[in-house]
Amino acid sequence: MPTNLEISGTYTRQGANFFPQATNKPILVFATRKKTTPNKTPHYLLCKVDAKLFTYVSSLYEINPNEYSLDYDKEKYLLTLKPTEAIIEKK
User: Model-level pTM?
Assistant: First the structure.
């Protein structure tokens, strides 16, 4: 995934997949670790590069139900999950 990619914005949520409403944004995926450890959060965010290739974006830190904090490219963001939307805002 290129650095300095703009991830903030509103995405259409279909299960764990977040499809951008703007054409210059990546498809993102909400992922859950199969094995959790004390040092890693259970959830993380991926960027879909192509049909079978994903790159890691950030760990997701739950701050409230359906609200997560994340860091990407030295910026802090807030991820809010709604039934049909995912919203990522810079803090």
Answer: 0.90
Residue 3 lies in a domain: no
Number of structural domains, the chain?
Answer: 1
With respect to residue 4, please indicate whether it lies within any of the assigned structural domains.
no
Q: Which two tokens stand for residue 35?
A: 């094995």
The DSSP-derived string for 32-89 is E-SS--TTS-SEEEEEE-SSS-EEEEEEEEEEETTEEEEEETTEEEEEEE-SSEEEEE
Q: What is the pLDDT of residues 3-31, one digit of tens each?
A: 568 899 999 999 999 999 988 899 999 99
